Amino acid sequence: MRRLVPDRYDDDAVFATADRVSHDAEADRWTLRIDPGEGLVGAPVGTPISDVQARRPTRTEDDDLTVLEGPVLFSAGVVTLVDGDFVLLYRDADASTDPERWTSPAGRGDHDPGTTALKEFYEELVILDGDTPVFVTVDDRSVALEEVYTAALRGIGNTTPPSEWDRVSASTPDRYRPYLSTVVTEVDGERFTDEMLAYYDAEANTLELRFVIALDLPNGRAEALSFADGEFDREVRRFTRSEYVALERADLVPTDAYMAHEIESPDE
């Protein structure tokens, strides 16, 4: 886990940008180079996110390698599947970007992409079995983010202590692994590597990164679960795979629209 912005700034207030993003198409590997403390955006540092969204990085191509010289924003999150269904949140009409569209839990980068993805997942998606919170363990970083989930639970008025949570694991279903790329983040000589869905949204100058996970549940357990947004109290809904790919692209944020397009198949 690596925080990319100075500790004096609150989470979800200031975000990092990459000064260089490359994509090796043959290896399907994306590499982000980030200089912590530089290229920060957000109101407290005086550089509006919209300014970076409006920029068009210098793009060079050499055989299978495409390079974007930044700054480039990045966003990370989690495409969440429960019993094969996609769990999405509805962005309100007054949302600053992509209003009135369905989205997976996600947010801009204040940590390395993998940690950002999980942090946003625990902030936004509360899962309950009755009144009992369900905590989803994705990887070794999950335990360190329990406080984030505790805060999300408090946001919906649930004060159940972690010792009483129901805990389930999650993993990427084999059918979705072909859609993932290797994502490498380079920060001060450190390297962080994850397997994620990757999509460069040129209009928003943002590299969108998503884990794709399914909760490992016994048969019939999924029907007992309910969902809530622990951060903004948005509507949360489950969509079957068929419903997900049938949604109008204008009804999804660009990353989920890309995901729905990628998995759509006339044979299914």
Question: What is the H-and-E element order?
Answer: EEHEEEEEHEEHEEEEEEHH
Our Rg estimate from Cα atoms comes to 18 Å
CATH domain topology: Nucleoside Triphosphate Pyrophosphohydrolase
Strand order of the largest sheet: 1-2-11-12-13-4
What fraction of the residues are assigned to beta strands by DSSP? Answer: 35-45%
Categorize the overall geometry: globular
What's the number of domains? 1
| CA-CA gap between termini | 38 Å
Approximate helicity band: 10-25%
| Largest sheet data | 6 strands, mixed, barrel
Could you name the ranges where pLDDT drops below 50 across 5 or more consecutive residues? none
Short key terms for the protein model shown above:
single chain; 268 residues; alpha+beta; Nucleoside Triphosphate Pyrophosphohydrolase; six-stranded mixed barrel; 15 strands; 16% helix
Description:
The protein is an alpha+beta fold. The protein has one domain (17-263): Alpha-Beta Complex (Nucleoside Triphosphate Pyrophosphohydrolase). The chain has five helices and 15 strands. It has helices spanning 49-53, 113-124, 146-155, 241-246, 254-263; strands at residues 17-24, 29-34, 58-62, 65-82, 85-90, 102-103, 106-108, 125-129, 132-137, 166-171, 181-187, 190-201, 206-215, 225-229, 236-239. A hairpin with a 4-residue loop joins strand 12 (190-201) and strand 13.
